């Protein structure tokens, strides 16, 4: 793993130009990631059986080396980080990234170069910044929309830009700090749950985690320290503090919102203590999101476009769309498009599962397992199943491993082919769907067997 990161760091500039356009090197890169996933799977299965702290420190040092090696290397097979760099630069110059889209800044810059007048001081400043960094501006995805990232994430982007403007290395340096905090908190959570601390390998040495955050510089890991802290506090009985920490996680990335009902059902406390946790969550989140909510545009267009239209690498959602397209083709009352019907169905399925997970109070020892199931379900049902979205579940899967979901580490590297050839998406999802069915069957069978034994003892 360390050797592969060293090679990637040394050859990053050449690979960055070569991989997107050359099939052979791209396939070699994917095969290497798949092999690393297989080795990782075998490694953590063995590591959890070993006692003593030697293996733990070996895992920690190897994971740390992988991350440090990749910090100075330019990201390979990624462009999202350009948006983070631009947002941070805008904030450092006193401008609002939720109101000015990068494309508007590019056009303002072009007008300024031609000597034309640009209305608005903010747009003029954004145009001058865009002219200063044209290479970054060209690589920003969905540049017609202002940013959709919440304030806590934007604060890190701004801190990175203040330290070293337009530097992916500076961004990854701050990622490393956040990830080390996640490591410490996750180790504490494993100790609290009386699990093997060697299970830290599920997260810390996962090749998709290392590639997504320290090669490709995605920002999702910024929410992880707050999520693990929220779970640790809830397990220790501090639901209100857990709610505050979870709110800070949602201020970095919106998806931790779905974990609030599970957090509020943890333990056997009085309803008022659960309600206080919900109130604390709502209050802190409202304050944290205030800069975004008070912006003129509030990023609403960006969020609506993302929620309504974007989908990529989806498996289950793709099947839903096929079903609704067939239904809308013959049913006389199909005023809504198939994509929207699929999203409504997805929401209904998730609400049903969430209701099932919280139907009874959750024992503290079972909280991480149910949260891992919840996040894994969000990923599987999602219209956008990017590999870095999969990492959302990994910190909690370290405390409650689900073999079927962890198998995605082996299959998701095929995402880089972008469904070429057609159908490669099913190579990523169908093996995992099959394993989910097997794991569920084993769980039901094992539960029935335990019920029979309990009945015999009675």
Level of helix content? 55-70%
Rough outline: globular
How many independent structural domains? 2
Strand fraction equals under 5%
Order of helices and strands: HHHHHHHHHHHHHHHHHHHHHHHHHH
Total helical segments: 26
Mean pLDDT: 89
Instruction: Compute the separation of the termini in Å.
Output: 52 Å
Q: How much is the radius of gyration in Å?
A: 23 Å
Structural notes for this entry:
This protein is mainly alpha-helical. It folds into 2 domains: 2-77 and 169-294 and 348-457, no CATH class; 81-161. Helices cover 68% and strands 0% of the residues. It has helices at residues 2-10, 12-18, 23-47, 54-70, 81-92, 102-113, 121-132, 134-138, 151-163, 168-192, 201-204, 207-215, 224-235, 239-250, 260-264, 271-288, 290-293, 300-309, 316-330, 338-357, 367-381, 387-390, 394-397, 403-406, 408-411, 424-457. The mean pLDDT is 89.
Short description, anyone?
This protein folds into 2 domains: 2-77 and 169-294 and 348-457, no CATH class; 81-161.
Question: Secondary-structure map with pairings?
Answer:
Elements: H1 2-10, H2 12-18, H3 23-47, H4 54-70, H5 81-92, H6 102-113, H7 121-132, H8 134-138, H9 151-163, H10 168-192, H11 201-204, H12 207-215, H13 224-235, H14 239-250, H15 260-264, H16 271-288, H17 290-293, H18 300-309, H19 316-330, H20 338-357, H21 367-381, H22 387-390, H23 394-397, H24 403-406, H25 408-411, H26 424-457
Helix pairs in contact: 1-4, 4-10, 5-9, 6-7, 9-10, 10-13, 13-14, 14-16, 19-20, 20-21
